[in-house]
Amino acid sequence: MTEKIGFSNVDCTYYDGAVWYKLTDDGIKNIERYITELKAKRKEILDAGLDTADETEIPLVSDIFIDAMGFGIDDDGTVYNGWGVTDNYDADSPICLELGKDFVVIE
Fold first, then answer.
1. I need a labelling partner for 72 at 20 to 30 A (CA). Which of 79, 83, 90, 106 fits?
2. HEC secondary structure over 17-86
3. To which H or E segment does residue 107 belong?
4. So where are the chain's domains?
């Protein structure tokens, strides 16, 4: 593997400058469920005419993984990150990814 900080869409890996991490199938499913929730909340807000989405895109699996990993893993082995669903509204809750379940260290 190359030593470059960032994300690989091919195999869902992330390098933090010292360690490689890989999303598991459970992690991908967890993020896909979260994206479904984001889309549903966005549709609800837009259908009600409460906001616009001119400057807010729904993220991809890779966007969520790389962003959450960029905040670092906490002492409990989890990473969190929240997302906007429209220009002025955020998701109801952040995504939570757990080391050993949603992503693993590549040795």
1. 90
2. CCCEEEECHHHHHHHHHHHHHHHHHHHHHHHCCCCCCCCCCCCCHHHHHHHHHHCCCCCCCEEEECCECC
3. none
4. 6-105
- pTM exceeding the 0.70 threshold for the entire prediction: yes
Distances (CA, A) of 48 to 44, 56, 88, 93: 6, 17, 14, 21
As to burial, measured by CB atoms within 10 angstroms (0-12 exposed, 13-18 middle, 19+ buried), residue 31 is: buried
Adjacency order of strands within the sheet including 13-15: 6-8, 13-15, 20-23, 103-105
Q: CB-based burial of residue 68 (10 Å sphere; 0-12 exposed, 13-18 middle, 19+ buried)? A: buried
pLDDT, block means (10 residues), the chain with 107 residues: 46 88 94 95 97 94 92 95 96 97 94
* Token couple for 12: 């869902």
